TrEMBL record:
Organism: Paraburkholderia sprentiae WSM5005
Record SUPFAM superfamilies: Homeodomain-like (SSF46689), Tetracyclin repressor-like, C-terminal domain (SSF48498)
Residues passing through the membrane, by range: none
Superkingdom, natural source: Bacteria
Official protein name in the record: TetR family transcriptional regulator
Amino acid sequence: MPSRTTHAASSPATAINEPRATARSTTPERILDTAERLFAMHGYFGTSIRDIMQSCGMELSLARYHFGSKDALFQQAIGRRAAVISRQVIESLEAELAALQDKRPDVEAIVTALSAPAFAHLKSGDPGWRNYLRLLTQIGCLLERPDLTAPFYDQYAPAAARYRDAFANALPRVTRETVDLVQHFVESVFHLVLNELYAQEARSGARALTTAHIERMRTYLIRFAVGGIEAMVSSASAQRGS
């Protein structure tokens, strides 16, 4: 998941229990669900409030009444699940570290923990979470509008700090700058893999991504990230020794 510094084979330790659209959803929830989906598909700049309200079959005035502006609606959409995913990735990391029984963590355990919650949500098929994760992959397109992404970053900050410390503990001989780059690169690869999964789904014309395929992509992500980190650390060590 993205951390503010980048401007981030276990399962989530907590149940997946965030908002899911139902027949009894309130008007704001229905608007948020639709906004989440359209912002994820078309981005902030490619989606208007009119698009959102037409898609959910409501009057434009209701969006103004409940949210005030497009910016405020986007901020609520990107922040609505942030606390949950932050808690889940922290608990996932704690579970991985507990399994090591006080041994120094390795980068594979950390990357495995970081990827577990998001990929579990993907495999669950929950449309809300699939839309939300796709929305998060677009955060990098909003670097000039930090006000829009602050609701996510503010809530995800504890998880980002926890993983930064874990990487630093796993890589005691590298500089803090290298640790920050490691975290940045891992999160960037994570987003690229998620985007590729969504692209494969779009090209297929249907939800053709099986649980096995999603997990296979996660395995490739972990192997690629770990290999890249090892090469990066080795290069940094060689430069210091020269």
